[in-house]
Amino acid sequence: MDPMAALRCECETPTPSPRRVRGEKPIYVGVSNRRGPVINWKHRYMKILALTAGAARMYCGSCLRDNTLAAELGKQGHDVTLLPLYTPTRTDEPNASYPKVFLNGISVCLDQQAAFFRKTRLLDRLWDAPWMLNLASRTSLQVDPHLLGAMAVSMLRGEEGFQLKEIRKLTTWLRSQPAPDLVVLPNSLLIGLARPIREAVNRPICCMLQGEELFLDQLREPYRTQSLELIRAQVAGVDGFAAVSQYSADYWRRRLDIPERRMYVIPLGINLEGYDRGERLPHPAFTIGFFARVAPEKGLHLLVESYIRLRRETDFGGSALRAAGYLAPEHRSYLRGLERRMKEAGLAHEFRYLGELDRGQKIEYLQSLDLLSVPSTYDEPKGIFLLEAMAAGAVAVQPRRGAFPEILEKTGGGILVEPDDAARLADAVYRLWKDPERVAELRRRGLQGVRLHCGASHMAARAVEAFSAMATAAAHA
After folding, report:
1. What are the tens digits of pLDDT across the range 193-219?
2. Number of domains in the chain
3. Of 178, 226, 359, 375, which has the fewest Cβ atoms less than 10 A away?
4. How far, in Å, CA of 416 to CA of 380, rounded?
């Protein structure tokens, strides 16, 4: 029997899809308003409006997660509108987002720079044209937090900021649509939209927490302090927060003083379609891989240093080091420096950067790896790349920080090392290289653990639980 088929039989428990039953009426909780009654949606379908922040031509982890969740909720019978902001979203799966983009990134930037654009709509039709947005999206969207502090503060001020005109376009459209049961903001940087959206639809608001702490921490003063103060001041205007990991939930509860009863965790999940491609074949070389944005905070330099140490100081050999992921223009010199470092060590032929990968290329790449390591130099709250790697059969070697411990504890598909230490990382890789039986066992656990706990259906089930609880709590408030 195909080993992967056996694994599917062992691991996959179908999630029943909520369906409308003819003649069945939803359960009302006895609270009504001008937009109709508020409903307790437990075990029922929901109508959800989820906002997602586009990142131009980059495969953004939050966009991928938002798209996967929306598609899975729709598959289970819920009515989901995934509304893109700034730019169209780029995903490596069928795009589930609404065709119209709000808070057009061109207009948002122009409104920030000049009062003229805030007061006139003469050019809005041009900026909002799909071809113009697509043209703008083909360029690299500058998301350097050192440069975007003023805009972040303005967006957090909501209708009191420079983007009032764009916010009113959004709320005007919302008033023309059937009201959702819940609105989901993609991150706390957009919490300034909570009040105008609530006034437009009079429905509960959920704010996702998806890793924006790195952006906030890199903001220059006074923008960092101002941003955090503005977010904290608007916590009471949101019905619930949903973090993508327990680490993230604990972090934000402390930082924003969020009451425990209003914090939920919706762990990451991935679409497993395409990962089961039969029995894994032996690799010609023991391959260590990196799969994330190529940027200093993701730690590729630590992986390079550990690899050089292995090759120079041990009998480790017959190996290769591979990297893949989005490379922003401002980080090209960083990659060139690492390539130069490998060349100076006489190992240039063993390292290759494969660029940004689409879904098929991503799965093929991850299946070619024996180990994956993304030794981030900060407390990473997500780590979707770990789920993808383990689903493809790679063993994870990660620093003991952020969400990595809880992911590996749940799946069993890897080991933890001390952070920011190339020597410890090299030692861990060496011990695994010397112990193929342990690698095989970790691989088996990872394959099983992801399918048992981290599929898109598991993420959607947790989301429905959280969203239902928020809507119910709001109805009884």
Report:
1. 999 999 999 999 999 999 999 999 999
2. 2
3. 178
4. 14
